[in-house]
Amino acid sequence: xxxxxxxxxxxxxxxxxxxxxxxxxxxxxxxxxxxxxxxxxxxxxxxxxxxxxxxxxxxxxxxxxxxxxxxxxxxxxxxxxxxxxxxxxxxxxxxxxxxxxxxxxxxxxxxxxxxxxxxxxxxxxxxxxxxxxxxxxxxxxxxxxxxxxxxxxxxxxxxxxxxxxxxxxxxxxxxxxxxxxxxxxxxxxxxxxxxxxxxxxxxxxxxxxxxxxxxxxxxxxxxxxxxxxxxxxxxxxxxxxxxxxxxxxxxxxxxxxxxxxxxxxxxxxxxxxxxxxxxxxxxxxxxxxxxxxxxx
Length: 296
Hints:
Elements lengths: L1 H13 L1 H8 L4 H19 L5 H35 L2 E8 L6 H10 L5 E8 L6 H11 L3 E5 L6 H10 L5 E4 L11 H9 L5 E5 L12 H18 L11 E4 H4 L11 H10 L7 E5 L9
Parallel strand pairs: 1-2, 1-4, 2-3, 5-7
Antiparallel strand pairs: 4-6, 5-6
Helix pairs in contact: 1-3, 1-4, 2-3, 3-4, 9-11
């Protein structure tokens, strides 16, 4: 009976190459399992020291592993289709503090960018002392895509983003500053890796090239690059712009990450946490334009 069990398992495993060939030669998982099966089972069959239980469990384990890898391969093939189908709404979070001069222009730009998805615009006023919140309220009353929130006290950009994330209902989340330094016309490029089914997180890099970038302060750019270098050392990523405003996430991922930093510490914190996220995330960078302001 023992020999029949082992031979039966070996016979089932012997058919794996047919399954692999039915897909295509790129199914390295199936080939790998086949190699293990053909290498290990003869040893299991010939070894008189291994008990029947050990041989039977090992044989069945190989079958389960083969089945799992086949399922993973099917998911890998279908992933782009699944990703495209599930994107219905893009949530744009706009933290705002004393940006009355640029708010209307930013909102107009966000509303006018052409996307094949519904937009959910979430603006969080961080207890501005100018007329920012009045402008936000006025727009939210007239435009159904806009939802306005106001912090009870000034807490910082990180806290405003945290509040925004708690209200997200879309599939993809984009962080947008309210100061016109970043152009919403970049949204299609930022979203494309999600549409292609290859990304879980996308950063828009000001230093990646191929787009317009205003030439401003040398030491400011060096400071950003230095902070990115430190972040890369700690996270083992190879980002070119950790401090960028344009960070785009799958909503289920960003809502599953606890954010502690209230101010600009949000940038290195969220970068460290997506780098450590399990299962490992697929992180991409896209070159973006940048229209930096002066301090004058």
